[in-house]
Amino acid sequence: MNLLLTWLQSGWLPFGAVLFLWIEFAVLCRFSNAPGERFKLLLANVLAGSCLMAALGFALRGEALFLVLLFLSLALIAHIWDLVTRLRV
Q: Where are the transmembrane segments (predicted)?
């Protein structure tokens, strides 16, 4: 628990979550019956989540506000891409 709190206070916990998210994404695609389709279906969602976690990490670390706003904007773009993809299916 102490390690988790240290990671949270230092701002590195969200970046660990991004790493876990991408590993999960790779495993889901690898073991899918249709890896290419699964990749296309999940990519925008994974990008949106990664950008949100990165923005949180930069905010917790007190980094430049520009980076927080940049990654929030990228998350919005990826989220819209994800919605368009899901509505087409």
A: 12-29, 41-59, 65-84
Rounded to an integer, what distance in angstroms lies between the CA atom of residue 86 and that of residue 41? Answer: 8
Residues in the chain: 89
Question: Please, are residues 26 and 76 in contact by the beta-carbon 8 Å criterion?
Answer: no
Structure tokens at 74: 């990228």
CA 60 to chain centre: 16
Tokens of 62: 């007190």
Q: Give the C-alpha separation, 35 to 48, whole Å.
A: 20
Tokens, residue 27 = 């495993």
What is the residue extent of each domain of the chain? 3-88
Read off the pLDDT of residues 27-76 as tens digits, 9 standing for 90 and up.
999 998 999 889 988 999 999 999 999 999 888 888 789 999 999 999 99
